[in-house]
Prior knowledge:
The complex is a heterodimer. Chain A is mostly beta strands. Chain A is 8% helix and 29% strand. Chain A has helices at residues 61-66, 94-98, 178-181; strands spanning 24-25, 46-50, 56-60, 73-77, 82-93, 107-112, 117-121, 131-136, 139-140, 150-152, 165-171. Chain A is globular. The two termini of chain A are 16 Å apart. The model of chain A has no long low-confidence stretch (mean pLDDT 94). By secondary structure, chain B is α/β, with parallel strands linked by helices. Helix content of chain B is 20%, strand content 32%. Chain B is built from six helices and eleven strands. In chain B, the strands form two sheets. Chain B has a six-stranded antiparallel beta sheet. A five-stranded parallel beta sheet of chain B has the order 9-8-7-10-11, sandwiched between helices. The chains are: A mainly beta, B alpha/beta.
Amino acid sequence: MAIVSRGFHGRRQESGAQLPPGQYLVKDFPVLSAGPTPRIPTAEWEFTITTEMGQDHRWSWEEMLDLPHETPTVDIHCVTKWSKLGTNWQGVSLDTLLSEVDTTAGYALAYSYGGYSTNLPLQDLLDGQAWVVYRYEGGDIPPEHGGPARLLVPHLYFWKSAKWLRGIRLLERNEPGFWETAGYHDYGDPWREQRYQGD
Amino acid sequence: MAGTAVPRGLTSRPLVWRVARLAAERWETPTARTLTFDVPNWPGHLPGQHVDVRLTAPDGYSTQRSYSLARPDRVELTVERLDDGEVSPYLVDILAVGDEIELRGPVGGWFVWRPTGRRPVLLLAGGSGIVPLMAMIRARREESSGTPFRLLYSVRSPADVYYKDELGHPEPGLDVTCLFTRETPEGWPRPPGRLTASDLSRRAGLADSDPDCFVCGPTGFVEAAANLLVAHGQDPQRIKTERFGPTGG
């Protein structure tokens, strides 16, 4: 049972928008990262999916751009409590990328240029729930927001949408990533407020 | 950031909401107040970690924000009032000694300095980003650590400096440089301006110490400072950052 803070009245959402518990709405786009922003020229960029059998599937920047793309408009929820509604992205669905990949893995570990990583159940990357995006609001994705390409998994807290995406390893066993090892929740569903271990 | 050797910051024990009673307060600047809380059964924390604060209105509406802990031995926050903020004006102007809020933590196992660390440390603070770095400076003092520390503190004007007396008090092995961005004291040798490569060359001791770097402040400051460090040849793996968004309040 929450205690009432004397003299606090708060500011209700004017928009009436439904937000996950503990989140508040922002209009700008805050940045959360744990280190310097890596700069990856698209000429050197490469994206790799590695199966549990060790088989690599690789796409260059040009190859990624040649794949059929989608333009998801999604709400995003950061574990640091801000939510941003109606963000517009362009990229390739993980369904498309995984369609040629032969796997029975249950888990995925997304990893980034610069050393970041984050884990998800593989099923959370499928069925129109996840994309490798390379455009934001009609332009290139700025480096501090994860460009040239990042993962977009909007139904989970935004740390699962790895910036500076380099690849995804498909795994038979769950393997915690960067923040998950540092005390954050393994799954990270904002609607169940799964911020930290034990939530 | 390192892809390996991530420190375990938290145990798997759930982070429960705790009642925190304001025990003491003091103003750091006209817009920032330090709040010291009594929190029964607080599990302790490392310098650099933060807490989540939850405020609840009489009708049950509640909202949460994160604030860095300002010292290693107490649950103490320094909060800057953001004029369009929802939580910070309450914490800075309304909360009185004896009042209760809720908080949980400590949170964050990455942006921490462990007093057992022996590598020299470089702290780069932008504005209110000084708060978690001050917790590291205080932990160093408390542990009588001989680890050399340097602080470069980018701040608008002398009136905006937090912890002025404490930082102005000479301490062996701690080198403090204020970099004023808008307004300097009279006769100050450095003209007002943002952190530059030349500030780093002259004041950061990068050439002779190869330090662990902690950078905290608003996003623009952190991006610029971390980029300068990388351009200066610092290993990105040894630069830890924490960003305070303008929407933190």
